[in-house]
Amino acid sequence: MTASCLSHLECSRCSMTYETSLEKHLCSCGAPLLARYDMKKLARLKKETLNARAPSLWRYREFLPIISDDNIITLGEPITPIISMQEIGLRLGMKNLWIKDEGILPTGTFKCRGATVGVSKAKELGVETLIMPTNGNAGAAWAVYSARAGINAYVVMPEDAPAITRNECYVAGAYLYLVHGLISDAGKIVNRAVESHGWYDASTLKEPYRIEGKKTMIMEILEQLNWDVPDVIVYPTGGGVGIIGIYKGLCELKEIGWINKKMPRLVSVQSTGCAPIVKAWQEGKMESEPWQHATTIAFGINVPKALGDFLILDAIYKTNGCAIAIEDHEILKAQASLAKYEGIYVCPEGAATLAATISLLEQSWLLPNEKVVLLNTGTGLIYPDTVHVRVTTLKPEEDVPG
Amino acid sequence: MTASCLSHLECSRCSMTYETSLEKHLCSCGAPLLARYDMKKLARLKKETLNARAPSLWRYREFLPIISDDNIITLGEPITPIISMQEIGLRLGMKNLWIKDEGILPTGTFKCRGATVGVSKAKELGVETLIMPTNGNAGAAWAVYSARAGINAYVVMPEDAPAITRNECYVAGAYLYLVHGLISDAGKIVNRAVESHGWYDASTLKEPYRIEGKKTMIMEILEQLNWDVPDVIVYPTGGGVGIIGIYKGLCELKEIGWINKKMPRLVSVQSTGCAPIVKAWQEGKMESEPWQHATTIAFGINVPKALGDFLILDAIYKTNGCAIAIEDHEILKAQASLAKYEGIYVCPEGAATLAATISLLEQSWLLPNEKVVLLNTGTGLIYPDTVHVRVTTLKPEEDVPG
What we know:
homodimer; 402 residues; Rossmann fold; six-stranded mixed β-sheet; 12 helices; 14 strands; globular
């Protein structure tokens, strides 16, 4: 019944520990808390056990924090495909180029991973009302999973966030508010609401469980590659929960011996319009500074200052990774290439990973024979404004030009 | 290497047969052709063999028409989830209500099934250029799979089709044309282009393989329900390839003994704004008449006259099913209910199946204890205009009302 090996919460900065039966957000030192597991118990699990399980992130339930299966709120999240990029690989001279397509998850983005685990845990903790700031996609995901869980969800997003994510929140019955400002402004509104009303704060890294859902990306990748660790993973970075989760998952898998010493080099991709992590990495710093006048078409990564910036940078440094910023016009070019040559219609954040790969190859940071996995975090459907369709309208009696 | 048990093509009306190695569209009598398999060979396959295969419709490859695996064009289509509708079920007094969510497929709709199989077969046949009329979603799916296959795709769609489907076609490099008219007008333009240029006609039921992809919906449903045949399947019907495919799949599975005699009753759902199948069924006819002034928000089922109408009606009659038309405002109400109570954001076509279920329950055509599966054919993301978001914009210093 209790498959989860969850043990306790641990501060990511000062290592203070907390128990998991009560609602808990940040450490008293102000840093994010991370879920820790009984690693001896986890180590008794065999990889082969997974084979017989349903193709969903819930197959990794020992590594996830939900104690009772009855609390699992799921929309049937599939294992997302890892697709070989033959045509673009050929053009770049790369033989081992893959893209993991998170765009097929229920709300069209990887945010579902965090939401299915985070909302399930919120339900397990007895939460009735939660609130979060978002750049759109996380809010949409938490709105629908909260609806399924019977939890009231308040969502605050910038008015410039993709309009379709408003629909997802609204139709799911969330209490939706826009803010004339950035996600950091939404964050301040959320802080005050949490203070005034005692609602569950589901802000990025202010609840410790969303990251556990994101962690399953690397577990799927490794299982799909027969536990052969790729050389490089390229990841678009806003709040950074994905890259932190990937690194956390890698460490856990190494600890229980499912993978050997080798770690993939983790690449954090940002837009030149909002690149605080890239700047910090270039300067060799352990934390980022708030980015001024942040703006990019890749709205999901328009995060001026991530709460977990030090964890993102740590993951990059520890894996000999790097951080790289991409111009918006290169992002759009990569989006078109992915659709035209591979048939994959990705969001701009996902497209940025291809642009980054091309740049890193030119710089010889990447070698053509390395095994490289790009993370596409969402479907292009949510960003109709990134494609400017030129089209001819015919009358029924007119012909298609030959 | 050759897993497919494909044997020949057979006319759905006059039973004339054709070989499969050459490009073939309609029978000389004008009716659609259906793929037929070596049923003795198929019958040697064991259900249990499937268990070890990857979670994708390609696990059913013996039942599919692709001879060489090298020709398979895939974007990693997952097995789509079949989600229990506990909350709505409770409200309706139904204990066994399920929805199969096709919205998580790569282009956001069930059209991917037809496209992955249809484009793969086109590649196997050496097709260089194909053309099709579409209400949007099929064109989008065929555009991206054609891009991946290196096949030129011409797509002609009504100017009223969902705008986002234009993006998918355009970004994938398809030759996209709009028509001031309905899908039937697009069809006429396509007919002339096929005549003039000799392009591969990928119109609904004018190539025999798309239906084979759609057939896998019922195979997944049955496998997900441990081969326990549901009582009723509710399906939104435009061109009707899905319902024809489901019925074809059921017949094949019965023939090889994977299911027993019992068939699910198949329900064809249309909009009151375009209900040619419903009218024909109500009048006990074997074919439909072209619907005049067709219009509905459920654009995918805005098909005034389906080429395979007689096959749709046959599937309904043979399974003791029915056909039912739903008002657009009931469709929108059902869409909102599915999001609010179950967390599933569906397209209007999918929402129509819930409205139909409610109506059939009221009429006692359905009984509360029956096992009912609704088919959601696509994600709500593609139809932003169906949700009218009312939202307040805050200044950063303003508070969320408590």
